[in-house]
Amino acid sequence: MNGLMQQLGSGQLTAFTIIVWTVLAFLLAVAGGAAAGVKLGGKDLGNSLAALMGAMYGPVAAAPGILAGLIVLAFL
Predict the structure, then answer these.
(1) For residue range 6-50, what is the model confidence (pLDDT) as tens digits?
(2) Number of domains in the chain
(3) Measuring CA to CA, which residue among 49, 58, 50 is closest to residue 30?
(4) Is 1 inside a domain boundary?
(5) Is 41 contained in some domain?
(6) Which H or E element spans position 33?
(7) Cα-only R_g, the chain
């Protein structure tokens, strides 16, 4: 486990680290979108529907930033 954390925190981009950080970023985007959906539309739509819609639309906003960030880091 310590070797895995060292590899992820080393700053070197390998196929493994790109996949792990991309998946982690998408999961955080889904969670953030769900939380924002509940906060913004939970009263009007109901918490379940607002969370579902937020979880679907959250990664739409985050995906270009995630991919652009990885591309910039790959070419530095």
Answers:
(1) 766 666 778 888 888 889 999 999 999 999 999 999 899 999 999
(2) 1
(3) 58
(4) no
(5) yes
(6) helix 15-45
(7) 16
Q: Which amino acid is at 64?
A: P
Q: What is the pLDDT of residues 51-71, one digit of tens each?
A: 999 999 989 988 899 888 888
CA-to-CA dists, residue 53 to 26, 59, 61, angstroms: 15, 11, 13
Note whether residue 4 is domain-resident: no
> Has residue 34 been placed in a domain?
yes
Domain range enclosing 58: 15-74
pLDDT, position 71: 84
Chain center to CA of 51:
16
**Residue in this structure with the two tokens 């529907």, named with its chain if needed:** 49
Greater confidence, 72 or 29?
29
**What token pair was written down for 64?**
């270009």
**Angle between the 15-45 and 2-9 helix axes, to the nearest 10 degrees?**
90
